[in-house]
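Journal club side-thread
Mid-discussion, someone asked how the predicted structure for our own chain would compare to the paper's figures. Pasting it here so we can look after the session.
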Amino acid sequence: MSVALQNDCFLRACLRQPTLHTPVWLMRQAGRYLPEYNATRTRAGGSFMALATSPQHATEVTLQPLARYPLDAAILFSDILTVPDAMGLGLSFGQGEGPRFAHPVRDEAAVAALQVPDLDRLRYVFDAVASIRKALAGRVPLIGFAGSPWTLASYMVEGAGSDDYRVVKAMLYARPDLLHRILAVNAAAVTAYLNAQIEAGAQAVMVFDSWGGVLADGAFQRFSLDYTRQVVAGLRREHEGARVPVIVFTKGGGPWLDEIAGCGADVVGLDWTVNLGAARARVGHRVALQGNLDPAVLFAPPEAVAREARAVLDSFGPPQRPAGADGQPGGWDGHVFNLGHGISQHTPPEHVAALVQAVHAHSRTQRAAA
């Protein structure tokens, strides 16, 4: 039996329901900017994957930021590349380097051999979800996540991160049939993976389309958004008698905001290049919005961090809107405060404290004044 939530503000905002304050959580909130994370990683042998594949360690580091800050949600400690790793591509993280695959998918034979992995190979993720959910004891909701089919395909074809995406883009233009086959397998795998996280206890899920913004208009719709839409359509939207919100975040996706808002997700994440107030005016009646402070703001002094956080909240405006002259009914537009991308490992932890405090305090003031 599920434990009643003590703080459901995040879930309510995702579903555009009234909240006492604007909820806040941070992408990569459990990570290298926290000394306690680094201590745990060292104790685990220094390897990222040693942490991610251990439910005990994953639970410990997921809860670390919640011990420091009154955040409104926890997010599973894992990586988007667990799915292609389970496909047998040989994921590794070199010292001081990003992820790398030993077996990139670049030719017809490799593409033909690709298949949805046995979810038992990802059992450590689902065990971590169950362990974290138990350890949270209803304190805040737990977010599960996966990479989008396009973002995963990019890593799988490139074999690592990329500055120009030339290998995967060459496949996109020269052999779109191969790329569509990879994307179809990825969409089925991501759908099954997220549903298993929900079954294990994730109370919301997020699809990270981290590389969607590198695509040309037209290509984005065909090779990224269409497959994200397939994933969203296949997700469980209710578990344990509660709605399970779905968040879609495309870094660089501002030009396609209206189309992303129509993909079926409950929440659209925005990076810092998008005007939040303008985005709300365009799509706020249909979906909640998440974002979108520039992560670099957190390098500034705490008073500047607080000022910029208030500016983001003011850009969105009071979440409760009156009936409009255009015939739109009154109601509640959801806003989940977040960064426009993941928190930097160089961020001073005390600056995060200033951010969370400012978001909670100013958003309560907004509601009192509305």
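Post-session note: The CA atoms of residues 32 and 345 lie 5 Å apart.
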